Amino acid sequence: MILYLIRHGQSTANESGVIQGRKEFPLSVAGNKQGMLLGQFFASKSLDYIYTSDLERAHETAKYLSVHQPLDVIPWDKIREIGLGPLEGKTRNEITLQFPEVHETTSILTTGIAGTETVEEITKRCQYVLDQLLTGHKRHRIALVSHGGFISIFLMYLMFGEKWNDTHRPFIIGNTGVTKVEFLENGKPIFHYVNKDSHLLLGDMRSESVLY
């Protein structure tokens, strides 16, 4: 299986520095332009399935892939962003003021604050997604359009399994950043590239990412 993990284009919340989690925000003007460039990047690639998070910003991005691929976009709630509960809809500064235990260097994906998705729940979700992919798409080329938090944790899960949270995450996934992972017959992953966004250079459309 060849798996492309793709973060959605810039949203209006990304543009204003707001942490989204599962809160709905549409693509910004720049995000739509990034989506078009992403679609062009995939025009020469062969895909068998396109899955998208059921959140609007991911679904809108996935539609740009389907312009160049004769495929339906399939919503999948299991690849939604990490649930951040009371942190959603706030800037990083607002979060720090309201929740002093969350320092600037703390990952907001795994704070343990009541109402957020727990490490155990995230781990089960990663395992489920991986199992479904390996069971149903062993010989397919798949695009998953998801979110920066979920993609970065899923990559850590592929490398470290249930101990993913014991290790520092060494990367940030940018808007429409593409990660290509090949799975061998035994299910082991090989990483071809992480967060590739060369398609954005054409229009100088790279955007800043908030630290998760």
Structure description:
- One of its GO terms (biological process) is negative regulation of glycolytic process.
- The protein is α/β, with parallel strands linked by helices.
- It is built from six helices and eight strands.
- A six-stranded mixed sheet has the order 4-3-6-1-7-8, sandwiched between helices. A two-stranded antiparallel sheet has the order 2-5.
- Strand 7 and strand 8 form a beta hairpin.
- The radius of gyration is 16 Å and the shape is globular.
- The two termini are 29 Å apart.
- 40% of the residues are buried.
- The mean pLDDT is 94.
Fold blueprint:
Elements lengths: L1 E6 L4 H5 L1 E2 L9 H13 L7 E4 L3 H11 L6 E3 L14 E2 H7 L20 H18 L4 E6 L1 H13 L17 E6 L5 E8 L16
Parallel strand pairs: 1-6, 3-4, 3-6
Antiparallel strand pairs: 1-7, 2-5, 7-8
Q: Which features does this protein show?
A:
212 residues, Rossmann fold, 32% helix, 8 strands, alpha/beta, six-stranded mixed beta sheet, single chain, globular
